[in-house]
Amino acid sequence: MIKKIFRFIFKVLLGLFLFSVFIVVVYKWVPVPFTPLMAIRYFENPEESVEHDWVHMEDISRHLQLAVIASEDQNFANHSGFDFKAIEKAMEDNRSGRKIRGASTISQQTAKNVFLWPSRTWFRKGMEAYFTFLIEIIWTKERILEVYLNSIEMGKGVYGAQAAAQHWFKKDAETLNPYEAAAIAAVLPNPRQYRANPASSFIQGRKNWIVRQMQNYGKFILD
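Structure tokens predicted for Biosynthetic peptidoglycan transglycosylase:
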């Protein structure tokens, strides 16, 4: 009886593992049609419209690509999914009582948004680490950034670069200038509360900081 139970558990875990690898491989090539967060938002607020329009990387302004790297994960091109220096710095800041900060990389945020649900449990964090590991192995850095820019929430009910560009600036994502790109990147920490346009004084300050970071960062190359 015990052997049957363990055999059943093993088969379930093996099936889940194979399915997770399969879906990551599929999304290496296929646009992500929706995310768990989109579904959750819809059921929480059925009257809220969902704006989402997938576009390829070449149709997303390089300014926006640079803006999210400069604001969210400046070591994105070099790390393997986890920025341990940023994690250590965040832990030091949090222990010392300074403003609580996160250390999630773009890879981690992509894994969380595409495959998982919002939660602060250790189980969900473990699953986030697992999917981060998978996409770093199976996808290229450029693909990770492409999926990230097409999937994350960039406003209330607004998902992805094209929808955000249309929502905030009435233009296509490929035509965003550095200041518009920085404005969108500035709202990412809390996209349901902040507005990219018109920007509050707080978002204006963040936007100016991001533009300076973009200028300091310079050109970037992804594999």
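The chain is about 60% helix and 5% strand.
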